[in-house]
Amino acid sequence: MTDIPIELPPRSPRQAEILSAARRRVEAEGWDALSMRTLAADLGIRAPSLYKHLPNKDAVRTQLLIDAFAQMGRACWQVIEDGAAVPALLRAYRATAAKSPELYRLATRGSLDRAALPDGLEEWSGQPFFLITGDPATAQALWAAAHGLTILQLDGRLPPGSDMDAAWGALAEAFA
Predict the structure, then answer these.
(1) Where in the numbering of this chain does the HTH tetR-type domain appear (predicted)?
(2) Residue 51: helix, strand or coil by DSSP?
């Protein structure tokens, strides 16, 4: 199931190149640093050329959100396929967020235009939490706790010297 069972919109090679540059910019400087002008400059082209491939910054955001949900979903589904339990799911979630922290932030902060995403992608990416807990409310609580700890860790908001492995272990134990 690590293969996405939802049909994702096809991307041309040029769209893939543009989105790769956008992702590099977002990971380096955050979403707010991205504009169509800076993206065009990164690619060595003029901004109007981008509009032939992606109509606006919102379209770039949607495509990056698709990538974020796919990346997290694949990592979490791999845990399910391996027959592992809550600790492994949390390790996969934490590692995936740490690998692409700005993409993670983009996908998890603010409102989400679900209508812009491919049908079923968000549900597919979160389904491992349900499968591992067996209950929708517990799955949401586990995801919320994992997200909270992830953001606190990414933002360096926990007290200096905090044992992050112990905190993640306690979270896993609480939901095991």
Answers:
(1) 12-72
(2) coil
> Which residue segments constitute the domains of the chain, with CATH numbers given?
13-175 (1.10.357.10)
pLDDT for 176 equals 87
Average pLDDT per block of 10 residues along the chain, 176 residues long: 87 97 97 96 94 96 97 96 96 98 96 95 97 97 98 96 97 95
Q: CA separation (Å) from 62 to 32, 43, 58, 167, 174?
A: 15, 20, 6, 33, 34
Residue 135: how many CB atoms within 10 A of its CB?
Answer: 11
Of 100, 31, 40, nearest to 67 (Cα)?
100
What pLDDT is attached to residue 141? 98
Nearest 5°: phi and psi at 142? -65, -45
10 vs 160: CA distance, rounded Å: 45
For 35, the token pair is: 């504009």
Token pair belonging to 131: 């499968």
Range 36-73 burial, b when 16+ CB lie within 10 A, else e: beebbebbeeeeeebeebbeeeebbbbbbbbbbbbbbb
